[in-house]
Amino acid sequence: MHALFYLLPLLPFAYPKSHINPHTARHLLKSNSPREVAAAAELISREDVQRHVRRSPSGHSERLVRRRKRSCAAKTSSVTATVSSTSAAQASSSAASSISAEAYTSSSVAATTSTTSANATSASSAAASSSSASLSGLSGLLAYLLPSSTSDEWTTATDASAALSFDAALKPLYAGKLPSTATAPDGTTAHVADYPAGIYGLSGSGFNFYTEGIHNGVDVSNASEVMFSYSVYFESDFAFNKGGKMPGLFGGTDLSSAKTCSGGRQDDRDACFSARLMFRTDGAGELYNYYPVSQYDGYCSTPPYSTCNPDYGDSIARGSFTWSTGSWTTVAQRLKLNDIGQANAEQELFVNGQSVISLSGLKIVPDDSTGTHIFGIMAQTFFGGSGSDWASPQDQKAYFKDWTLAVMS
Prior knowledge:
By secondary structure, the protein is α+β, with helices and mostly antiparallel strands.
C-alpha cells in the first residue's frame, strides 16, 4: 500500500495515453527526482501532448493572449490618459505662467485676487482670465497685453511682428518730463523712471506726458471702449514708501480740460476724467480714478480696501494685486464709457493675464455731457501724495516697456 502511494505521481507516465495536462508535466521538469524529470520530458515530446494543445485552440493559450491584450490596452489607455492630462496641465501652466518664448520674467502676481463688488472669487477670476485670454486668440506676452478681443491696436512689444518704436508710438501731446531709454536689468530696452531720494510729485522724479496714440487705425477719441497696457519692472530692492502714481487713461469734453484731471482738481470735474493705477505701501496695487460724478453705492467700499477722497482721487480695490520687484509685471486696463443717462460704464484690470479688478455700473460720462471722449494715455509715474512723507526713501528706478493701446468698440 505504501509503495502504491509513492507510485501514484508516476501513474500518468506509466500510462502515456492518459492525456495528462502538459502544464503538469512541465512542473515535473523541476522535480528533484531524475526519473520524474525524464518521464516528464518524454511525455511532453509525445504526440498526445501535442494533440492536447491542438485540441484546445480556444483554451488556455488563447485566453492568456486575450488577457495580455486587454492588459496592454488598459495600460496604453491609462498612459494615454495620464499623458493627455499631464500635457493639458502643462499647457495650462505654461499659458498661465510664461509671458513669452524669450527670457521674459513674469511676476507671480502675488495677485491676491480679491472679490470685488463686480468681481468673482479668485477661482472664477482665474477662469475668467483663461476665457478672456482665449478671446484674444493670442499667446505669451501679447495675450497679457491684450487679454480680450480688439478691433485695432498697436504695441511696442517686440514679440509683435509690427512693433512700433517708443518714439513712433508715444509722441507727446503735452509733456512735463519725458522718460529716457535704458537697458533694463534683464537686458531689454525700456523707458526708465528715476525716483531720487527725498523727492515726490511731478517735478523732480519719474516722468509725465500725455499722448493720443493715434497709430495703425487706433483713434481712441472715437471709441467707447479701449484697452491700455504696459509692463513695468521695479528694481529688486525697490522701496514703495506710502505710494505713487502709475500710467493710465485720460479723457473729457476737450483736450484742455482732460489733461489736468489730477492733482486734487475740483473745478469742472464733470469736464474730465482719469483712470490711472497706483502702488502703495509694500507694493499694494489699485485703481486710482478721477471720475466726474458720484458712483453707485458700494463703489467706495470695493474690497479688499477702497476710499474715495473728495479732495483727490478714488483709491479703489487697494491690495487686489501686488506690484512685484525684480521681475516684470504686465498690466492691462480695460475702460468702457457709459451711455448718456445710464450707469453702464465698466473698468477692468488684468495683471499678468489675470482679471484682478472688475467694476460695472459706473458713470464716467455725465448725464448732461455734450461729448465726453477718451483722449489717450496719461503717462505719469512719481512718488506722491502731496507731502514730503510720500517722498522716495532712496535713489531707485523702474523700467517701462510693451506700451500697447487698443480699440475694442
